[in-house]
Amino acid sequence: MSDLLDQPRSDLSLFAMLRFLGRHFVTITIFVVCFVILAIVLAFSIKPKYRSEVVVFPASSSGGVGDLGGQLGGLASLAGINLPGAGGKKSDEALEFLRSRGFIAGFIERHGLMPILFAPKWDAARNQWRDPDDIPTIAKGVKRFSKEISQISEDRRTGVVTLAIIWTDRVAAAQWANALIAEADQALRDRAIAEQDRSVEYLKSESAKTSTVEIGAAISKLMETELKNAMLARTRDSYAFKVIDPAVVSDAKDRDSPNKPLITVLGAVFGFLTGAIVAAVRQRRSERR
């Protein structure tokens, strides 16, 4: 390679490069073999991770009150009723809830995942953290879970959402993926039912106060709509997320990482470059003597 560095650019050629490689074939080969061996050892020492995916279709509308929005928009807003076009897409709300720090933190706490997420810091024998001064916070757990373990992607064209869990335990990965969707769906269902119950109670009180027939009839329509929505929320199998394809346990050989062939190839490339640099430095030193 020093031959190439010392020659004018016009003299650089494939022949000169081949001549340099042939002259230092042994040195470069030794580095390639050493780096490949190190890459293979690294690839087999890394704990494999598995990927489990659950495919869902979020609810796309929030349930409205039709033409009554123009008559009682203010009253409906006070009652907590989402009018068409005023409250945004229910699917967006559901996705943001699924991504939210509060929900992820609750999921981690409910399932006792902190010792699992930070296993090196956990003493399983004594059932306590190894260093009392270095106990991971729930905020760190949420950050790791959201950034490294869970992935949420949405196909804007179809609206289909894919939640993936990548973890070293392939059984746990599938369980967490399904549980995340199920618990998010239930939490959103409970929230919607509570809001609708409050809305109905408010409308009942307003109906008792009004003496105008038209407003009373409109309030009755609003109540009817909310009661229908509450019934659907209580009876539907899926409220916010309709599961299209649940997560299943991956095969033992179906690893998401590490990519052993890629690591081996990169090891060979780095070995070749390192060997070539070392050979060029040695040749330049010998030429200066």
User: Describe the biggest sheet?
Assistant: 4 strands, antiparallel
Helix share bin: 55-70%
Strand content: 5-15%
Total helical segments: 11
Molecular shape:
elongated
Outline the low-pLDDT stretches: 1-11, 61-73, 78-88
The beta-strand count equals 6
**Rg value:** 31 Å
Distance between the termini: 18 Å
Structural class: alpha+beta
| Strands side by side in the biggest sheet | 4-5-1-6
What is the total domain count?
Answer: 2
Spell the H/E element sequence: HHHEHHHHEEHEEHHEH
Whole-number mean pLDDT: 80
What is the fold's blueprint, element by element?
Elements: H1 2-6, H2 14-23, H3 25-45, E1 50-58, H4 68-78, H5 90-99, H6 101-110, H7 114-117, E2 122-123, E3 128-129, H8 138-149, E4 150-154, E5 161-167, H9 170-209, H10 213-235, E6 241-245, H11 260-288
Antiparallel strand pairs: 1-5, 1-6, 2-3, 4-5
Helix pairs in contact: 3-11, 4-10, 6-8, 9-10
Structure description:
- The chain is built from eleven helices and six strands.
- It has 289 residues and is α+β, with helices and mostly antiparallel strands.
- The protein has two domains: 2-46 and 258-288, no CATH class; 50-245.
- The chain has a four-stranded antiparallel sheet.
- Helix 3 packs antiparallel against helix 11 and helix 4 (68-78) packs across helix 10.
- The longest helix has 40 residues, at 170-209.
- The radius of gyration is 31 Å and the shape is elongated.
- It starts with a helix and ends with a helix.
- Residues 1-11, 61-73 and 78-88 have low confidence and may be disordered.
